[in-house]
Amino acid sequence: MISIEDALRAVIAKSKEVSKEVILPIEKVYNSILYRDIYAPINMPPFRQSAMDGYALNLHNDFSYELIDEVKAGDSHQPILKPGEAIRIFTGAAVPDSANAVIMQEKVIINNNKLAVNSQLSFEYNIRTVGEQVKKGELALKKGTKLTPAAIGYLSSLGITKVSVYKKPTIALITTGNELVEPGEDLDYGKIYESNSKMLHSALWNLGFEDISIHKIKDNYEETYSKLKNAITEHDLVIISGGISVGDYDFVGKALTELKVEEVFYKVDQKPGKPLFFGKSDSTLLFALPGNPAAALTCFYVYIYLALHRLTGLKNHGLPTIKAKSLSNFVKNGDRPQFLKAIYRNGEVTILEGQSSAMLQTFAISNALVLMKGNMEQIQVNDLVEVILLPF
Asked: Please, which domain of life does this record's source organism belong to (predicted)?
């Protein structure tokens, strides 16, 4: 059995990016990672730009200006201002070369075509200079940057329509078990509704992964072997839910052995999620998760989240971890480290009831996990605890 720390190090060591470049339209790169540096094809802004609605002035030594024209955002004409002249201008509009300051409209008095200001302005006041954000030829975004909505907006503002990114991994989700029934079907005695595939699919989708296939396997060795073999051949990442324990009808481990999957580790010293398997077959990564839903989701966020980031070119080490003040008391049973479902707000964390590995009710309202290490017997109110922030 491996420690949490060693398991995380093993995931990092074995998870290499799917080093394939793909060029995609800017509309389809959300949450992708840049494969190459991007250099600005234009200055941004490409012209001297007004930072607000107001008046562009050719400064002189008086506080009075003659209003001679108007420039709206998108106008291309350039009025020529003499000293002491002004034009009406709007946010984002091009500032004429002959203007050297912009004053906001609330700070002037207009009488006929005369404009009175109440103070002297400095040169370039309220004017966005050419290339203020980035100059043509400069590095706009470097390789390895995650493409957030702001990054996509920034690149679009530079006129970029296609981006080179790391290809996202193809993912197979496999659930096992005779007891599983699809929601909407009749629930016979001894059966349960299958939830892990939908839970894990939504977690992957939330992180921006869309190339996901879902497979359901009964507790049958031949079917398990065949489906796993195909999944390993066709995907970069295989996530298996259930069937990894040592029961008479748990066939996943046997099939992985026969398929000659490298076992990186099996069983982690933690609760929930002890029977976690991580392996590799050529370039395909495999995680076999416990079947209990809360255990499966915990393992997803602690380990698979990290592997996904590594596969897509990110070099960070998983979800952010912070210290927070506990608002709860909690006594741990046993000496295994434990991930506790919790709610984090404003530097404080509440540990929830219902910590069973089979229970999703409390996970459904959690936004964090508290890591209670093996040498900790209890948490008391006001203790500082380690909190893993979940990505939603």
From this structure: Bacteria
CA atoms within 13 A on the CB side of 292: 18
pLDDT digits (tens, 9 = 90+) for 129-188: 999 999 999 999 999 899 999 999 999 999 999 999 999 999 999 998 878 887 888 888
What span, in angstroms and rounded, lies between the C-alpha atoms of 247 and 160?
55
With the C-alpha atoms ordered 143, 145, 146, 151, is the resulting torsion angle positive or negative?
negative
Task: Return the residue matching tokens 């506790």.
Answer: 340
- d(CA 388, CA 392) in angstroms, rounded, equals 12
How many other C-beta atoms are found inside a 10 Å radius of the C-beta of residue 283?
Answer: 12
pLDDT at residue 343 in the model: 97
Q: What are phi and psi of 113, to 5 degrees?
A: -105, 20
Q: What is the pTM of this model?
A: 0.83
Are 305 and 328 within 8 A, CB to CB? Answer: no
The dotted CATH code for 4-19+168-311 is 3.40.980.10
Sheet holding 108-111, edge to edge: 101-104, 54-57, 85-89, 64-71, 114-117, 108-111
Options 3.30.1440.10, 3.40.50.970, 3.90.105.10, 1.10.1670.10; CATH for 21-43+132-166 is 3.90.105.10
β-strands 64-71, 85-89 pairing: parallel
- 91 neighbors 50 (Cβ within 8 angstroms): yes
d(CA 279, CA 240): 11
DSSP labels for 193-204? E--HHHHHHHHH
Residue 333 pLDDT: 87
pLDDT given for residue 392 in this prediction: 81
